[in-house]
Amino acid sequence: MNSLPIQTTDNSEWHLTEKELCHLDTLKKLAEPSIADLCREEHPNLLIFPQDLDVYGDKIGDSHIFEVKGEAIVTGNIMGFIGCGDTKVSISSRYTQGRDDYFLHYMLRKVFAINLFDLQFNSDEESIFDFLIYLFPTFLKRAMQQGMYREYQTRKYNDGNVKGRIDISRHIRQNIPFAGKIAYTTREYAQDNHVTQLIRHAIEYISHHRYSGNILHNDDDTADAVKAICQATVSYNRNERQKVINQNLRPISHPYYGEYRPLQQLCLQILRQEEMKYGRDDDEIYGVLFDGAWLWEEYLNTFLADIGFEHPRNKEGKGHKSLFTDGSGWCYPDFLSPEMVLDAKYKWYDDWSDVQTKDLYQVISYMHVLNRKKGGYVVPVDWTSSKLPFKTLKGLGGTMSMHGMGVCFKSESFEDYYSKITLSEQLIINKLETDNKMPPKTISDED
Fold first, then answer.
1. What is the pTM (predicted TM-score) of this model?
2. Rg (CA), the chain
């Protein structure tokens, strides 16, 4: 079988080559379940973002990674890497120029607040797994905001401070003749448990990684979280890594420690990378996937928030607006300023005729009930400023604009791409600030 991944892009149709047709049955297996079904089946080596599929009410879970039509696979907004056995599919952004998917990596680094130049970039088929390491600080800090994970542990002691049930048989074996010690077993609500041990093993793995050990000390919050985990896991033993992995194959179900579940899954992914690359089960589904629409929206928020745009969040119940005067009928526009309603679309619009009617109606209705005179869309394009004329609405009036942000650049390196896309960000910021009648703001390199 062909060991190289099938390489395609999002929102495209890829006709399988003669060599790739041998993977058709497995590709159908990957295509049949919805993303929600894949998550419910709890594949420990499959990580999907956003992890909360209802985070914005976009029904991401109802979609599929791709479809199989005849001898072709048809992709949607999902990007990343997925495989089963020897069948591997790599889905890059369709806005990529050249072999290296700088656009996807740039968005991921911005959304997960990774230092852009402390990260070694590589473009081989395993780079998406290497990228998991750079997500670790964000997941760790989110989990630690809920406090150190604790659970009841059974501990066996043999000393003079009896605090639990005396273990008669063990006491006879260990303490005859009697020397003042009692063998007993107790239940303790402990920080040193299978979950914190898993996190500790991930920390040790990352600290010795060829590129990424410094990410554990990139900021004070990460360094403090790492230190707290190390202090809590006094029984850490490098040789027990596989045992700890096996203890964590069942996901955390504790309702209070909700942020530890994605951290647990990420740690498993990091620690099992070599196993996934070289020792997979034939039926095991593995990979890491990102919804392009979600990622584009989160990326835009990294700089639109700085110029006065709210980013309402459906699942968190933050920033919702009412459709009716009695306060009912909540709505969640993507971005909202005092002057404008903006909809983030991970779509290629060349003309107003490309905009679906339902998308037009949604923005127009938000403009009406929220009393905004301006509305529009922010879309990725291969040019650096909007070429589409604005539209004036009939009836109550108002204008609709298409804000295109250039993301397609031929670049010799990631640093070259970085310089070009940050300029593109500045151009769209300046345009939106003008439309919003706000004083200009310049993004620094640190932003």
1. 0.79
2. 26
